[in-house]
Amino acid sequence: AITNLTKWYAAFGVSGSGWGQGWNLVGIRLPITPWDPQSQHLKFLNVPSSFLSTSNEAVYKIFDDASCPLVGKTCNPQNFPSLNESRLCPNGRCQFAFYGGESGYHRALLGLQIFNAFMFFWLANFVLALGQVTLAGAFASYYWALRKPDDMPAFPLFSAFGRALRYHTGSLAFGALILAIVQIIRVLLEYLDQRLK
Asked: Which regions of 27-174 does DSSP assign to beta strands (E)?
């Protein structure tokens, strides 16, 4: 059975410590396993991103070709013809200017979107690092076992996951934080490069 597993590993390009990988069958599935938490993470962060992107209001302002003292003032297109502003600016029009708003929430919207992108990078890097440390711990439990099948834990992947959560969560979070800071700076610089071209 071990030789068949070795042939199967070799057929899929898996190399390493030889026949001993057969004792860690779940390890071959682990590179696929982080896709599930990452897809859940994408769904979780897509909700606030969608909310932030669509939470703006249509802002209407007064436009006029002639010299009107009210040009640029916010207006309401439903009742603009009956208001005093239309009498002060007879050629004035209440037209759509932009999506946004003038409240404190709308002024902070860009910062909230940058924070949401930062949290996306941080959590994605954390999940990726947790998967890599778990896989490394699972294969290390085979490598450091003196008597290979007997000294290995019953479920090496789950025990490595538990060790990673118990002993390495802080290191993983800090490393993910450093990567997220670098990535958000990179995204902001790429955005500025696109805007300044």
From this structure: 57-63, 93-100
Final residue of a domain: which of 72, 100, 128?
100
Q: What is the pLDDT of residues 94-147, one digit of tens each?
A: 888 877 777 777 788 888 889 999 999 999 999 889 988 988 898 888 888 888
Taken in order 164, 166, 168, 169, is the CA torsion positive or negative? positive
Question: Which structural domain range is residue 80 located in?
Answer: 57-100
Q: Which of 27-36, 56-65, 142-151 is least confident?
A: 27-36
Domain count, the chain: 2
Other CB atoms within 10 A of residue 34 CB:
19
Pair 112, 176 in one domain:
yes
What is the spatial distance between Cα 60 and Cα 170, in angstroms, rounded to a whole number?
49
Length of the chain: 197
Instruction: Judge contact between 88 and 45, C-beta under 8 A.
Output: no
Number of CB atoms found within 10 A of residue 60's CB? 19
pTM: predicted TM-score of the whole model, two decimal places: 0.65
Domain boundary among 74, 100, 126: 100
For 13-24, what is each residue's pLDDT tens digit?
444 444 444 545
